[in-house]
Amino acid sequence: MSNHPNPTTADSAAGRHYSVIVAGGGQAGLSVSYYLKQAGIDHLVVEKNTVTHTWREQRWDAFCLVTPNWQCALPGWPYRGDDPHGFMKKDEIIDYLDGFIAMVDAPVLEHTAVTRVKRGADGVYTVATTAGQFTADHVVVASGGYHTPIVPRLAERLPASIVQMQSSEYRSADTLPEGAVLVVGSGQSGAQIAEDLHLAGRKVVLAVGEAPRCARFYRGRDVVDWLADMGYYDMPVEQHPLREGVRDNTNHYVTGRDGGRDIDLRRFAAEGMELYGRLDDLRDGALQFAPNLIDNLKAADDTYNRINAGIDAYIEKNGLSAPPPSRYEPVWQPAGERTTLDVAASGIGSVIWCIGFRPDFSWIDAPVFNGRGYPEHARGVTPVEGLYFIGLPWLHTWGSGRFSGIARDADYVVARIRNALQARVAATETAGV
């Protein structure tokens, strides 16, 4: 039995037919349920763990939002606190989500995994789960795109004495054994975890990837506020210069910690963090790194300055009053490229893999996936009638996989479902005349 409102038991749901089954009970799935309830459409949300469990179980202790609180705009549940330009910490995020869960009061079947989705010749979907089989006219896949943690085979060759974990398993510096910590990857999670360890006084070795970075504040405001005014967050994917290619981009690293600030890996290096390029191999007891640290740091800084230059242009074009512009200049430079690190001599006691996740939609039997395993869709609507996706990065806009844009996407998908159901009723009535 769920601890959340409106629980559904396997016994009460088993074998039933629904107009819509939603696979996934995170903020995306619950947002779909919100609009389905408004439309009076019967449905079931199926969640393999508990609703919004990722926020509770796969975030480190000091985790906080990297976008300001005002962007928390789940449907019917905008941010209600007194710090719209602050950054909610983990416990505050959970409180926010708990309020949303209670408000939506979705029909949820928890601790139930969807194992197979297939559309029959009659257009009805069979949805097999660990709690039995259901049928539905429409299926909305709201399980996100981050399913299988990426850990390279190289991990198998590290000494057994080294503790290894994926970023979703990290909680705090205190939970790691003594010794230096190797963090592999410098995207949002990697950069923030490296910062968390660094602030805790741990020796950190960071394998720096190609992730870009951005400023937290620029010319008197949060960069997110500027970009919102510039319309960036309303830009649909088909208008982005990269088109669908933007979905493959790594998120910019920045932090909301302690009121928000830049993450400057160069400054960390000046304070003792060891930076290397991309981790490539392990040979004869030594880690092998690509000689691309200098290029990776420069590329991240170039993106930082390019975003700020765009803000400068916007301010000038609109005649706005703001503090003067500035340009980031490196506070530290590598003396050269270091490409090897002896594992034993380095004192590394733990490794945190922060190189992302792979999607796993193998349970969906439908011809909608490309060669990389991602679904082909237009704003979440696939070429297969009755099958939809939601909550994926850049499904429609930048905010599609975030609190800020999920409402718009869920409303759109549910409107398509409602129209399809109404058309079916009208066709049935016409045929019966």
Automatic annotation (TrEMBL):
Single GO term (MF) = flavin adenine dinucleotide binding
Pfam family for this entry, one = Pyr_redox_3
UniProtKB keywords: Oxidoreductase
Question: Ribonucleoprotein: present as a keyword of the record?
Answer: no
Protein name, entry field: Putative flavoprotein involved in K+ transport
Record organism: Paraburkholderia caballeronis
